[in-house]
Amino acid sequence: METIGLMSEQPMCQNPLALQQLKRIWRECFEADDGYLDAYFSIGYRPEQTLVFQDDDTVLGMLTLLPCQYRGIHQGKVRLYKAAYLFAVGTLPQAQGRQIASKLLSAADDVLKKQGVELALLAPAEPGLYHFYQKRGYESFFTRRELFFEPKGRAEHPNTRTLSLKPVSLSEYYPKHINRIPQESILWDEQTLCFAERESILYGGGLYVLMDGQNELCICNIYRYKEEEVIVKELLLQQGVSQQQAIEALRDLFLQCRVTIRLTGTDKENRVPSGMIRFYGPKEDMPENTQMAYLPFLLD
Fold it and tell me: How far is CA 290 from CA 118, 140, 142, 270, in A?
């Protein structure tokens, strides 16, 4: 018999077999390795935030609901919306074709409305999924810019600066993050971001302050899935520092690497979609869609 519900409400919730079934979905749908699974299930997993599709006692699909807030513009004024981020929507390969993802999304709508959530948001894993979510009531809302750099042989500014990345804890990073994100942004609480910190460290990176001598240029979150590849998932500038300064500094630090830098979508040039929302309230209460809203690097 098919059932859908929060994991915390399932009779099998405390059964170790249930966790193994969830981990199987992570492995087969998202290619999660053991290190990632250990981190997620020790820090990030919450049964009351995990929606599951079961056929008898077998979990075939899942969807995670992470609480957050959206700070948006409504009728010319800043407004906070109670929100939820839909994360890790996955169906086992052998169960695909049964519309399990669609059923989970519909069940998520019901759960979130009962909780008083005003809007759901998600980040499609690939461009082709935008149409899938559009058909289910979502619209493109968040944007970002991405810059790509190949390895280069020498620094742009040799011998003129002393660049360094200073590792910082989440408790040090978080206040800077909150103060520097754009006005239209998703707001995470610090506890929710503990897993994101652990994940970035797991993959060879972490949370950093980029310094030029004693001067702070920006904060950044870096992943290094491969030694020769650097992905800057967030870059937020210190006041008075230009974006170009920070980008050049990062390039000079990683001369022999391929570098990807993600930037907020407040610059209209070369921005791409990065997330969608589904609004549950009356149309007149919906936040303005300026196509400049920021979905932070975390948990994408």
Answer: 18, 10, 9, 15
Pairing mode, if any, of strands 163-167 and 77-91?
Answer: unpaired
User: 52 — phi, psi (to 5°)?
Assistant: -130, 145
**Looking at the whole model, is its pTM more than 0.85?**
yes
The secondary structure of residue 184, as a DSSP letter, is S
CA distance 193 to 243: 25
In the numeric block, the tokens 């109670």 are attached to: 82
| CA 54/CA 78 separation, integer angstroms | 41
**Chain mean position to CA 101:** 19
Distances (CA, A) of 98 to 22, 61, 90, 101, 121: 18, 10, 13, 8, 24
Name the token pair of 251: 């390039």
- Residue-wise pLDDT for 205-254, tens only, equals 999 999 999 999 999 999 999 999 999 999 999 999 999 999 999 999 99
Using CA atoms, how far residue 285 sits from 68, 155, 183, 282, in Å, is 18, 50, 18, 6
Token pair for residue 255? Answer: 């001369």
Beta-carbon contacts of 255 under 8 Å, excluding residues fewer than 6 positions away, are 151, 152, 153, 154, 155
List Cα–Cα distances, 103 to 28, 53, 121, in angstroms: 20, 8, 17
